[in-house]
Amino acid sequence: MKKTLVSAAFVLLAAGLNAQSYVTDVNNCDMLHNVVRGTAARHEVILPEVNGYHIYKADLHIHTIYSDADVTPELRVQEAWFDGLDIMAITDHVEYRRQEGKMIAFLKGVVKDGAEATNWNIIRNPADGRGIVSDLNVPVRLAQEAAKKYGITIIPGAEITREPVSIGHYNALFTTDNNLIYDADPIQSMRNAKAQGALIMHNHPGWRRTNVEHPEIERRAYEEGLISGIETMNGSEFYPKVIDRARELGLFVSANTDIHASATETYRANGELRNMTFVFAKDQSLESVREALEAGRTLSYSFGTMAGGEQLLKDFFKACVSVRVIADDGKKLTLAFTNNSSIPFMLQASGNPFRFMPFTTFTATVTKGKSLGWTVLNFWCGESAHPSVTYEF
Fold first, then answer.
1. pLDDT score of 340 more than 60
2. For residue 389, what are the contacts with CB-CB under 8 A and spacing of at least 6?
3. Angle between helices 216-223 and 186-195 (to 10 degrees)
4. Which residue has the higher pLDDT, 106 or 10?
5. How would you classify the pairing of strands 87-90 and 153-161?
6. Whether 345 contacts 317, CB under 8 Å
7. Where are the alpha helices (DSSP H) in the chain?
8. Checking DSSP bridges between strand 379-380 and strand 305-307, what pairing results, if any?
9. What is the dihedral of CA 230, 232, 237, 239, to 10 degrees?
């Protein structure tokens, strides 16, 4: 019996080793390679076509090691692809380049009390005093090169970064030369970006502030027509009040990560889709994406919440949800509603709201000639407004 058990154990061990599928290296007979390693998969975010437009998933606010983030432009492209994005903007800071300061200190051997100096904020050490230390277009070019094998559209950009309370931060999108943006006057910096055809997006409008009202310099930027878009969502922040501002001023809305750390750590490792700006465009080209932004055909998505124009939100919902009749007794219809998208909906007709999860179906009964509808509570079309969708039968 003991011999039999030993033989069985040997067979199981051999089977286990065989299941690992090692192969011999072509150049080294003493080296084996495991070929059963899992292939990393892209997380596809399924969205419908709406009003004849494709919906492209974009992140319009991304940082790399070339300003103050922790990873390279190449890795940002890989993260974006795995997270299901189609479009991304590289928007490293013009004035604040912490990693560059660290590298300069390393190359010059600068230390302070045995440790590296830490005051790399160029806002406190004015950029016009130092001049441009490096080519600010490099991170964009690196991302563009890496994106070729992933099919991701890269929007060239840069962030105009000033004191957040009295001035604010602004992304210049579709830039042609980031080295020509800086001026000591932040308004002139925006003008410089605008002169090269950039669209200016107002970033995180309430960050470090007590409200989203305009300080003086920000007001001047709006009055001069320098601002084309605004973040309703940035990371975990949500600013419902600026949805009304976007509607009144004709700004595109966006939701972006403003990512500095690992995107996986911040979103997918926590079971969340990353922040995305949904761009309703004819195709994925820079020209079509820009046209969509200028026309205001965008919606914001963050942590299961969406924001934007009321009609576009309604059109999006109805494009996501299919309806079919499953029973007809002559007076009443029993209907099946199916969510064919990756987006959850929180619906309320009367009483308690209920979740309509991605790729699920629920049934409802309606008298012929009557309507059926819900308020979509996780859709915001104003500071305290949610769209309602109605179906007639």
1. yes
2. 314, 317, 318, 373, 374, 376
3. 30
4. 106
5. parallel
6. yes
7. 2-19, 73-82, 98-108, 127-130, 138-147, 186-195, 216-223, 241-249, 263-266, 286-295, 310-320
8. parallel
9. 110
> What's the rounded Cα separation, in Å, for the pair 279 and 155?
13
What is the reported pLDDT for 119? 55
- Segment holding 356, helix H or strand E: strand 354-356
The 3 state secondary structure assigned to 156-181 is EEEEEECCCCCCCEEEEECCCCHHHC
Q: Are 197 and 176 in contact (CB under 8 A)?
A: yes
Residue 193 φ/ψ region, left for φ over 0, alpha for ψ in the -120 to 50 degree band, beta for the rest: alpha
- Extract the tokens encoding 215: 């300080």
Q: Which among 256, 165, 159 has a CA at the least distance from the CA of 213?
A: 165
Please write the tens of the pLDDT for every residue from 285-338: 999 999 999 999 999 999 999 999 999 999 999 999 999 999 999 999 999 999
Cα torsion through 121, 126, 129, 131, rounded to 10:
60
pLDDT value of residue 387 = 98
Split at pLDDT 50, 70, 90, the class of 351 is confident
pTM, full prediction: 0.88
Distance CA 61, CA 201 (A): 10
- What sign has the CA pseudo-torsion 188, 189, 190, 195? positive
